[in-house]
Amino acid sequence: MVLLTRFLLFPNKTTRRFPAGNKRHSFIDQVRIYARGGGGGQGHPKFGGIGGKGGDVYVQASTGITLKNVKSSKRDQRYIAGPGDNSKARILQGGKGRDVVIKVPPGVCVTDDNNRLLGDLNNVGEKVLVARGGEGGYEKNLWNGAKGSRGSFKLILKLIADVGFVGFPNAGKSTLLKAVSRTEPKIADYPFTTIRPQVGVVEYADKRQISMADLPGLIEGSHQNMGMGHRFLRHVERTKLLLFVIDIHGFQLSPRHAYRNAYQTINILNKELELYKSELVEKPAILALNKVDVEGADKLLQETLELIQDKSLHSLTEKDTEENEEHRLPISFEDIIPISAKHGEGLDRLKSRVREVIDEHYEKERTIQDLEVEMGRRKNIGVV
């Protein structure tokens, strides 16, 4: 209707169109590549010379790189290592073929076409071999160099951040990130404003820094890859703390979708995380009940807190309860904090608790690791 009115009022105006195939949003978090190791060089049977090994193809975590760079650096993302040198009368040992190193950002996991994990590259410098070069020719292979291994692989980025925001679209996550960190996410009053992950850094008075990731909003069915589905959920996996950002007034994606109150929203998000990967609901979590500055929030806040305290499911729809009760592993929140991201209410307490919870769980993990190391030491020396 809007477009029709525009043409009627301005018949000579042309609309701006994006070229065919042009993507308005260029964030890339998955790339498929083809890699082939170099073939081994030929041996020299007369003098017993050994051909050089073919080059290998590696994927390595590096700084200053994105998956967009990988996608644009090679036509069809094909990476082929160099062949090994042939053995010669004057140089019996053939030289090794040239290796190829594909540089990716930290946080990338590498899988083969069967989704078998080959490696997680969390830290700069870590690398994984994806295609091995062939052996050089020698007596046992009749002096014929072998072909290198080959295959297609997926490079999947999972953001590394201390805190991951979890919430339905338009819950105020972008506004909250802007309020507590040094970043300027795009913000508007409609769902799905965040179309790419935004990472901000919260800096405390003692210069301690904690990174927070505002991720594209979930919808019901995300665990089945509906909406942004798995693209969202895989970014949550590496965070240390989940920060649920819930509109205290509830959520309705559109007039065609059911309205969900704040408590129902929490339960649905809980379900989506659990059905995608049950370990996610065991992560430390804080609940931020947002938009408490809006009229009517006090009553809704009290009702929501009572429901959470009772751990009741009666506010879920009958259909939700019947279908999903067997899957429920309720998240236990470390704290529940009413906030107004727009006006700053409750944000100092929120930032303080985020730091405390992260530090508490880090200490617990370190204690457990120390105990495991000590138990292993005692076992090795025969002490029970």
Can you walk me through this structure?
The chain has 384 residues and is α/β, with parallel strands linked by helices. It folds into 2 domains: 30-157, Spo0b-associated Gtp-binding Protein, Chain: A; 163-366, P-loop containing nucleotide triphosphate hydrolases (Rossmann fold), CATH 3.40.50. Helix content is 26%, strand content 20%. The protein is built from 8 helices and 14 strands. It has helices spanning 2-9, 67-73, 173-180, 229-236, 262-276, 297-310, 318-324, 347-380, and strands spanning 30-36, 57-61, 78-80, 100-104, 108-112, 117-121, 127-131, 150-157, 163-166, 198-203, 209-214, 241-247, 285-290, 335-338. It is elongated and about 90 Å long. The N and C termini lie far apart (78 Å). Mean pLDDT is 80; it is low at 1-25, 186-195, 221-230 and 312-326.
